[in-house]
Design a protein that fits this description.
seven-stranded mixed beta sheet; three-stranded antiparallel beta sheet; 30% strand
Length: 202
């Protein structure tokens, strides 16, 4: 387990109430599945400290886990901030790397191409880089689509045509499934029609 010792001080509930969502804090690294006593992780509040009620604070760690704690509870690890003159030294859990959750399209997609892909990743980053925890494979139909974002009309119907923005042209459903659409807009997926230029040439 790789940790770093840093000087820190514990915050009271009143001090936490003055923090914003961009202030870096340290919370307990322990989870329900894995107990890590006296170990902390970097985190950020899920909303400004003054917006919490009842003394319970929720933070999201850099490892994308949400934790709740009572800063003033003596039986809990509490919330700490880095402080060179802090009265305590805490152990902060370091990152071992990142797990990529990708939608990866491999043309052809046979066993040979996947083996070549993993071999290339191992050669580029080291033998232990590709540890396949979960591999979901599915065939992708050879259909090109235009993905649009269309504004949801407000008020009376038929007053004017809805606004539309193109988001992507891709093979369905490799990327269309993963596009995040704006609030007040809805996705529209249509068969791709290549642009035809009828301008006469000389």
């Amino acid at each position: 387990m790789n940790t770093e010792k840093i000087a820190a001080r514990r915050l009271s509930l009143e001090e936490v109430a003055k923090l914003g969502v961009k202030d870096k804090i340290f919370v307990s690294a322990g989870t329900a599945e894995l107990k890590l006593p006296d170990c902390y992780v970097p985190a950020f509040l899920t909303k400004s400290g003054g917006d919490f009620e009842g003394g319970s604070i929720t933070a999201r760690t850099v490892f994308q886990e949400e934790v709740s704690c009572l800063p003033d509870d003596e039986n809990e690890a509490g919330i700490h901030v880095a402080d060179e003159n802090g009265p305590v030294t805490i152990e902060v859990l370091q990152s071992a790397g990142v797990v990529l959750d990708l939608a990866l399209f491999v043309p052809g997609g046979d066993k040979g191409s996947l083996t070549a892909l993993y071999a290339a990743a191992r050669q580029a980053f080291g033998a232990d880089i590709v540890q396949i925890w979960r591999q979901g494979l599915k065939e992708v139909p050879d259909v090109k689509v235009d993905v649009y974002e269309e504004q949801i009309p407000r008020g009376r119907k038929g007053t004017d045509s809805p606004k539309r923005d193109r988001r992507a042209i891709d093979t369905y459903p490799t990327r269309a499934d993963f596009i995040e659409f704006s609030a007040g807009w809805k996705p529209v997926i249509e068969l791709h029609k290549p642009a035809v230029d009828d301008t006469p040439t000389i």
